[in-house]
Design brief:
Length: 230
């Protein structure tokens, strides 16, 4: 897929999304944002459409390349189910495991140095590697088991929605851009006109482990095949 198909353009107070799936184009002025967002901040989230994922793992590769994630660790995993059906009509269901960018993040609460933190301007949970002392409290506290120690820096690490790479460059996250089936949607949950809010409103979605009170911002669209495993 051409990356130009879905560019995130961050300009003077305007965000424009264009997608190959829905051809949704939303242009929101800063004036509108101020009027519609309670605190004037962004709250980025993501939707993973399990019914569109074909398990090609291009998202994993793009994440690794864009964010310099070494072999042996990963910010994103695509997990394949057991075979569904009988030969030769066998299919699979795919799931995504990555940071859920919890609004109420256990990793942030337990970090003794402030290295694990929430960026209040975007809602992104990130790691300040210089502050990390490698205690591992955050790895133990994360109910989604998505944190790891970076083999080169020794710091805790995980998906940060490409905050310091693609987002900084005004582009959508690498995994979103790389997906050939448009199974990922990224955007501002505080903006009622954003594509992500339209997708959430128009599909059956769920979030993992909401009963823990973590308030995750990774939504998933159910695949029609097989048992839902959370
Ligand atoms: S999924 Fe884990 S690493 Fe991500 S914000 Fe939640 S607790 Fe922290
Ligand atoms: S490993 Fe680093 S980020 Fe995690 S709790 Fe300890 S100091 Fe904080
Ligand atoms: S948003 Fe960026 S850091 Fe997170 S999984 Fe996708 S490519 Fe990796």
């Amino acid at each position: 897929m051409s990356c130009s198909r879905r560019d995130l353009l961050i300009g003077t107070g305007a965000i424009i999304f264009t997608t190959g799936i829905t051809s949704v184009a939303a242009s929101v002025s800063s004036k509108t944002l101020t009027a519609t967002m309670s605190d004037g901040k962004k709250r980025y989230g993501m939707v993973f459409d399990s019914s569109a994922c074909i398990g090609c793992t291009k998202c994993e590769e793009a994440c690794r390349e864009t964010n310099n994630v070494p072999d042996g660790v990963s910010r994103l995993e695509i997990i394949r189910s057991a075979p569904i059906g009988e030969h030769p009509d066998v299919t699979y269901r795919f799931d995504r495991n990555s940071c859920q960018h919890c609004d109420n993040a256990p990793c942030v609460h337990v970090c003794p140095t402030g290295a694990a933190y929430k960026d209040e301007a975007t809602g992104i949970i990130d790691v300040e590697s210089d502050k990390c002392v490698g205690c591992g409290y955050c790895l133990a506290a994360c109910p989604y088991q998505v944190r790891f120690f970076h083999p080169e820096t020794g710091s805790a690490d995980k998906c940060n929605f490409c905050r310091d790479t693609n987002l900084k460059a005004g582009k959508l996250p690498a995994c979103v851009l790389s997906c050939p089936t448009n199974a990922l949607v990224f955007g501002d949950l505080n903006d009622p006109n954003s594509e992500i809010n339209k997708v959430i409103a128009n599909n059956s979605v769920y979030r993992n482990k909401v009963e823990l009170g973590t308030q995750p911002k990774l939504y998933k669209i159910v695949d029609g095949k097989g048992e839902i495993q959370r």
